[in-house]
Predict the 3D structure of the following.
Amino acid sequence: MEDVMQQPEHQDVAEEVVRLALAEPYREALATIRQYAADRLAEGYPREELYAELDRARDLLEARRAPDEAEDPILDVMDFLVGFCSPGAKL
């Protein structure tokens, strides 16, 4: 039952990331999405699930035929989540 309750919340995460990715140029979108991800983690959102939602956001961008560069800040935040970045950038 708990998984069913979480589904809409997860859907909202991917949708919000898409909205943020499309709302600003790369540099600003990167900072905004990174902060959004950090806030979700601080709230106890599981890291693996957040990564999956970021990946789903990429799929949503592709389905909406968004410009390829809209995906770049999402990919960078995914790297921050797994530690494929400088130590200071890791989430």
Q: What stands out?
A: Residues 1-8 have pLDDT under 50 and may be disordered. The radius of gyration is 13 Å. Residues 2-89 form one domain.
